[in-house]
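Example 3.2
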Amino acid sequence: MTLPPLPSQPAGVAWPTETWPTGQLPQAVAKPALAKLLADAFLEPSSEALGETHALVIVQGGRLILERYADGYGPEATYPSWSMAKSMTQALAGMLVLDGKLDVHAPADVPEWSADGDPRGALTLDLLLRMSSGLAFVEDYSPENPSDVIAMLFGEGEKDVAHYAADKPLAHEPGSFWSYSSGTTNIVSRCLSRAIGKYGPDFEAFMRERLFGPLGMTSATPKFDAAGTFIGSSYCFCSARDFARFGLLYLRDGVWDGKRLLPEGWVDYARTPTPRQEGLDDLPYGAHWWMEIAGPGSFSANGYEGQFTIVVPELDLVLVRHGKSEAMKDNVRAWLKAVVDCFR
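Structure, written as tokens:
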């Protein structure tokens, strides 16, 4: 598969570490269609088709060109990441790869798998990042159904989310079966802490030094469990503008203001499709990033209630959407693609 090239920051456009440079909608944008899409989304109190839309930020050419908020929200408000935090966890893993402290193709450092003969001991971070470990985990958000993710985040596993997930047996041969799992991400998150010996406030300081600080993500608020593991599956609150900064880092191939923050090729790794079994009706998946939500070549960080950070290399565009639309996933995705199509 040939990946579309990632554009560089245009000459003369400042990096948004302090403030976002702004611009106008390009002449070529289908403005009437875009206006209709915005009107449909920002109905009060909610849209029957799309649920609640709280924020929309669009960046093109490194400039903030469109920003819209519902009543009661705004640029200073912070929004839940839900599973967009998974893509942040992938970024943190890349930083430790850059430091030479992590090898994604080596067996993952997971104490629960260390016994002689435990087949899980051969699982690599690559398999975990690609959701192909084969570990049993039920990702179901309906309280009336058996659900490992609910038990992990809100029940018996909440004090040590990585242990809860790592304690699960294999349900499939590693690498043979793709299965989306928030537990997998929390195993990865603890592996990052173990690689540098930092947990809780110390790991948060690492996040601020290496990711949030360089990008100017001053609103970022990660959450940790009682064991000191960053709950990388689900919890990093940020403003919509700060999520856009994170998306811009990936649009710029992991380089920020002349400094490489992610290893060369790490963004391509994130957006390279993971082999999956036939019959799945969801979007393609890379390495802790979804793919093709806004057409071929696009990739995105997606959250449970309708949170999205979408990167579109061919248009040099980042789109961030926040809201509460968990039951309207297909409608919201179609709306997002239609918004991006207005720029084509």
